Amino acid sequence: MNWLAPLPVALLIAGCGVPPxxxxxxxxxxxxxxxxxxxxxxxxxxxxxxxxxxxAPAEQGVLFRCE
Length: 67
Prior knowledge:
By secondary structure, this protein is of the alpha+beta class. It contains two helices and four strands.
């Protein structure tokens, strides 16, 4: 049973290595990002400009659209 001891540590390390999804599409066509910079970078990668719409509900990032 000693082989089980390293398992939680390995799972913890593996979980920390996964980057969070930075841009989340919402039902109404707007997008949510953690920061304004991430929103601007996302739109720039798509060849457009970010139009900021304000803070996301519960201040969980920013709402934006790529135009």
